[in-house]
Amino acid sequence: MKSIFYSNNVSYAYNAKYICNKLNHISTVSDVYYNHLFSSFFIEYEDESEIMDFFINNHINVIKLNSINEVIQNISKNKNKLKYKSIILLILFIIQIINLFININDSYQLLIGLIITLISLYLNKDYLNVNVFNDSFMFIVLIVLSLLFISINLQISLTLITFILCSITIYKYILVLLKSKLFKKEENTETKALIKRNNVQLEVKPHEIKPNDIVIVKDQYTLPVDGVIIDGFTQVDQSMYTSEIPIANKTKHQNVIAGMINQSGYMEYRATSTNDENTINKRNNLILDAISSKNNLGNSLIFLHTYYPKIMIGTSIILFLVLLIKSQNILASVSFLISLLALINFEIFEFITPLNVYKTIIELSKDGIFVKNSNTIEKINDCEIVMIEKVVLIEDEPDVKDVFISEGIIPSDFYHVAYILTKNSKTKYASTIRNYLKNVHISEVDPKQFQNTTRKPIAKEEIFKNYRFSTYEQLKNKNFNLSKVEPSIQRFLSQGKNSIMFTYKDKIIGILTIQDILKDNVTSTIESLIKLNKRIILLDKEQPEITKYYAKKLNVAEYHCNLTNLQKSKLVASLYSEGLKTVYISNPIKKIPENTEVNISINSGINFDIHNADVIVVKPNIDDVLKLMNKSKDTIFTINNQISLFIQIYGSLVLLSFLSFITYITPYLNITIIYLLTINLIKKYKIINL
Q1: Angle at the Cα of 360 from the Cα atoms of 358 and 366, rounded to 5 degrees
Q2: Do 426 and 532 reside in the same domain of the chain?
Q3: 485 and 542: one domain?
């Protein structure tokens, strides 16, 4: 069982790391990690009682929640509470500053300062968890101030404590503001919906719509639930899912989904889902699940988690003693000690990865690219092999390229036979031939053409009895005599064309060649992937000559045809044994190898229920894969750069402490800079919306 444990009093990175390590030692826990963006522990376990006992014994308040949406609601609940606390603490800090300069009895001044500090501590009690070892640098500072500064200047000590406590609350409030902004739910439906239920027209709220209700949507209104058009023709704008604004045509019995915008005036459709189960919520849940998923992008912080606090504590204590012995100045030594210990706080680093991952997932989703697991961003960047099924590179409908009619066969008879044979057939290429005949030779396939002549059309019974249409492979497998047409067929294959042959008993009466059409941007996308040093492998289920033709056209050196799923898995395994990881790109219908690193499903429609895909692309565009790869590369580059930047800044602050240890303002300066850096980092992402 996997559950979410939300906690609003686990404030610092080292806290969460410590708790995760302790939880991992519980025998019934198989996996646990902490997500800073959600302030939540994601725990996979067998026995819940042991987990709850751990939290209770460590005085950590947690709430068990079933979904990310519940977590978001709890995060938002804290906003007003933290706002008022921040205002009160800021006022208390200002009063504390004023108290330093007013001329009153020292005892009264000290009493006022002590009361203000105690009130500040009380207001921060939810965020100060002393039961966890090395909870935060704040407590180290407080302890040092209490034990050492008390003998020098208690009033200054109390003012610094108030400042630190005020900073904590304001920092927490800014984080909650950020998260509320990030997770603000978009309203994609109208506040009221018009429906017909039991032949009665009603106005209801979207969440009151039930399956089988007839939903009435006016022009430019958003569809509130998924459904099926019951009559007529309509046009919808589906830019919410694809970022583009193509107007999609929908006719009777076709599906429409929540979030589409009606572009055809008045329309009616039958609801197939409730408002809670619609595609919008599936989309939003997929995004939230991706953001909350575990990833390894923060591995560069292992040094900080493991060594940085210990190094800083050890260095601070040693240098404090050295300075105290050499300078005999306890105030300067304490100032230096505090300034170094203040740098132990590195919670700011913990938001670099989730915020960048969040930003990437959101931006990709706006382009119709939905990443199901945040780890995919790292994996796709590490893959050297891109294995592509040709089906995602070609248009849904191929073209008829050539028509050859045998000598002695009247063309109108051939077209008539071809049309009758393909009219109701569901075999491959039947619809292509039928549409070609309807569009190009409509007058010749119409039986009415024979009404004004003495010649009669070939009877349907005769056509179905003695005439057939087959592919080259099918006739070859039946040992049909193809010797006369074999050279032509081989020439067509080398040109990437399939031959569809129409026969009468044991004679060929005509041949149509059909060729798949590459989608726009396919060639340029493949070229760009090659420039990214990706090794491309083209997979196809056509004849080797046709696969070779398309591989050559796309400048792809490696290709395979007619591989079974087991053979694909073996191919992936052989590449993996060479240290090469694979991205596999296919459509939802294709079976995918189980051992690929990343599976990308390119759809021809909006569908979020593809369970075996790591990435769902709702637009049938191969160039979106390139966009995903470039975005993943940029994200990892940004994360590494930001971590490197903040490490340099922290290093500069350490140097500042060394250079200015005799300046008593150093602790104030360092703490202020740290929180200003945090605020700047948060402001950078404040514009992000779900």
Answers
A1: 105
A2: no
A3: no
Distance CA 584, CA 563 (A): 14
Spatial separation of the C-alpha atoms in residues 601 and 610, rounded to whole Å: 8
d(CA 222, CA 191): 10
pLDDT digits (tens, 9 = 90+) for 477-522: 888 888 889 999 999 999 999 999 999 988 999 999 999 999 988 9
Cβ-based burial of 98 (10 A; exposed 0-12, middle 13-18, buried ≥19): exposed
In the numeric block, which tokens belong to residue 300?
A: 């560069």
Other CB atoms within 10 A of residue 624 CB: 22
Same domain (yes/no): 178, 36: yes
- Examine residue 409 and state whether it is found in any structural domain, yes or no: yes
Domain count, the chain: 4
Q: Do 469 and 532 share a domain, yes or no?
A: no
Write out the residue range of the structural domain in which residue 256 sits.
Answer: 193-274
The CATH number of residue 609's host domain is 3.40.50.1000
Q: How far apart are the first and last CA of the chain?
A: 28
Query: Do 69 and 112 have their domain in common?
Result: yes
DSSP letter string, 342-390: GGG--HHHHTHHHHHHHHHHHHHHHTTEEES-THHHHHHHH--EEEEEG
Q: Cα 86 from chain centroid? A: 34
- Whether residue 595 lies inside any domain: the answer is yes
486 Cβ neighbours under 8 A, 6+ residues apart: none
Of 151, 184, 217, which one is at a domain's C-terminal end? 184
Q: Are 62 and 173 within one domain?
A: yes
Question: Could you give the CA distance from residue 408 to residue 323 in angstroms, rounded to a whole number?
Answer: 109
Tokens of 574: 């052989």
Q: Closest Cα partner for 9 from 62, 45, 58? A: 62
Beta carbons of 508 and 609 less than 8 angstroms apart:
no
Tell me the mean pLDDT per 10 residues along the chain, length 690.
79 70 88 86 90 86 85 83 89 88 80 87 68 46 53 67 78 79 60 81 83 85 85 77 72 82 82 78 82 73 66 72 70 60 62 83 87 88 90 89 89 86 86 83 52 66 90 88 90 93 91 92 91 92 91 93 88 90 85 84 77 84 88 88 75 63 50 56 49
Please state, in angstroms and rounded to a whole number, the distance separating the CA atoms of residues 26 and 20: 10
Regarding whether 49 and 157 lie in a shared domain, the answer is yes
Q: What is the 3-state secondary structure (H, E, C) of 251-272?
A: ECCCEECCCCEECCCCEEEEEC
Q: Residue 159: exposed, middle, or buried by beta-carbon count in 10 A (0-12, 13-18, 19+)?
A: buried
**Could you tell me which residues are beta bridge partners of residue 262?**
236
Judge if 509 and 556 occupy the same domain.
no
pLDDT in tens, 401-460: 999 999 888 888 888 888 889 888 888 888 899 888 877 655 545 555 545 555 577 888
Taking a C-beta distance cutoff of 8 angstroms, is the pair 681, 348 a contact? yes
Token pair listed for 8: 């609003």
Kindly give the pairing relationship between strand 582-586 and strand 385-389.
parallel
- Taking the C-alpha atoms of residue 320 and residue 343, their distance in angstroms, rounded to an integer, is 15
- Of 491, 515, 539, the position where a domain reaches its end is 515
pTM over 0.85: no
Query: What CATH number is associated with residue 442?
Result: 3.40.1110.10
Is residue 641 in some structural domain?
no
Q: Is residue 291 one of the residues assigned to a domain?
A: no
